[in-house]
Write a structure and sequence with these properties.
Length: 212
């Protein structure tokens, strides 16, 4: 499906909330203006995973924000999510598209122009590229040169979202790269005030996109 670039503006990816209920944190992020949400959960399985996904989907629906599931097509279908995001070692985009149909979103991680082009050809609706800065969520992530990020954005006709260590202090360094938005983890879900953090990042994201 063809997605509106505007929903990529501030793409929040869930993270461990240190004891706080994740669904409550998600709601605060949504109140702060997050435009797209990815549920990424590595610890829960089975019914517990599905219950939490359904609850987060309910909160997203209240704010008309699409929910993306990380690397789990079955869960996306079971909870009625808007789509999935796939890494290079996950299910191939072509297979995910076959299972999800044309009405759901398929996002793919790509660090090179070649991989981005292939993802688009295989049916991806958007590309996630990074890590654009150092990141605490993936210790082995190698920073992606911003010139490469610009080339990726220029090489495909679908939106590209930057990810990896993005926060208030460095987001504007990505002006002029051509990205449609910014995926954040710790800078929203690791913040003491989730809603306020999201609000500030939405403002900065709009300013950064406007400078391209």
């Amino acid at each position: 499906m063809k997605i509106d670039r505007k929903i990529m503006l501030l793409y929040a990816v869930t993270a461990d909330c240190g004891g706080a209920a994740l669904a409550d944190k998600v709601e605060e992020a949504l109140r702060g203006g997050v435009t797209l949400l990815q549920y990424r959960e590595k610890k829960l399985t089975g019914d517990a995973l599905l219950r939490e996904a359904i609850e987060i989907k309910r909160r997203c629906d209240e704010f008309c924000v699409p929910l993306i599931i990380n690397d789990n097509v079955e869960l996306a279908l079971a909870c009625g999510a808007a789509g999935v995001h796939l890494g290079q070692s996950d299910m191939p985009a072509k297979k995910a598209r076959e299972l999800l149909g044309n009405e759901r979103i398929v996002g793919v991680t790509a660090r090179t122009v070649e991989l981005a082009k292939k993802a688009e050809q295989d049916g991806a609706d958007y590309i996630g590229s990074g890590a654009v800065f150092g990141t605490s969520t993936k210790k082995d992530a190698v920073p992606l040169d911003h010139a490469v990020l610009r080339d990726i954005c220029a090489s495909v006709g679908i939106p590209v979202v930057a990810i990896g260590g993005i926060g208030e202090k460095n987001i504007k360094a990505l002006a002029g790269t051509g990205v449609a938005g910014f995926a954040v983890v710790s800078s929203v879900f690791g913040a003491q005030d989730t809603r306020r953090a999201a609000e500030r990042l939405v403002t900065l994201a709009k300013e950064t996109i406007g400078e391209q």
